[in-house]
Amino acid sequence: MTFATHHLPAGSAADGPYALDIWPEQAGWSHSSLRVLTLSPGSTHTFTAGDSEWIVLPLAGGCTVTVDGEPFELHGRKSVFEGVSDFAYVPRDARVTLGSGAGGRFALAGARCANRLTARYGPASDVPVELRGTGNCSRQVNNFAAADAFACDRLIAVEVLTPGGNWSSYPPHKHDEHRPGEESRLEEIYYFEIEGDAGLGYQRVSPSRSGGTDVLAEVRTGDAVLIPDGWHGPSVAAPGHTMYYLNVMAGPGAEREWLIRDHPDHAWIRATWPGQPVDPRLPLYTAGEAR
């Protein structure tokens, strides 16, 4: 059974121990998955990777990730707004146990894949932190599992932080067709957290074809948006509330690459960026630094 909507408010896609549980059959596609797991202090959770590779990424707190008997200690972070996190890569067909003495919340970003790579630890200090855009299009991208930053078989995942009042995922862009050297076909999940009480933001997805994905959603902490196709953006952060989202992507292409095509009506905005300063609130933090 697939989800009836592309916007999944917090709690609407919960299942068992997972506050959010998105897998390909529910999303109506073939590759991308995302789970958010909450562990109480001293608790553990075990799962099997199956036919997918996974990255365990702390959202709040730290944990031990044991992959086929090999432990990886993740120091984690207080929150997504207070530092880059270390992470663990889990290959397909592995048996995995997460345990946390102090408790916390952890994202499990997954992608169906064919090849079994080696389980690995990803240090926070090695995560490339990029400032993208300028002016009120300024945002911070933590490229922990970008296609050119960390080796996976199919999975691509990054974090984006947008200061209050700014727009990100802008200009609107898409990656729903295979165009060699120009555009890659990728299914994408956005998972949101908004800083501050009653924080909110907005996410737009507009159709790139007849009958395509069409979303205009008010998003809050714990919400997710599914993007099988379409021009996605902007992601708008309300003034006073920094917006965080985790992007999880995977697709059927022979190459693991992130190639996007900007919406032709809005692509010109990129040419204005060199003449403007980057938002002085950025970076919120750098790799290996806690705020």
UniProtKB/TrEMBL annotation:
One of its GO terms (molecular function) is isomerase activity. Gene3D superfamilies: Jelly Rolls (2.60.120.10). It holds the Pfam family KduI. InterPro entries: Deoxy-glucuronate_isom_IolB, KduI/IolB_isomerase, RmlC-like_jellyroll, RmlC_Cupin_sf. Keywords: Isomerase. This is 5-deoxy-glucuronate isomerase. It comes from Streptomyces blastmyceticus.
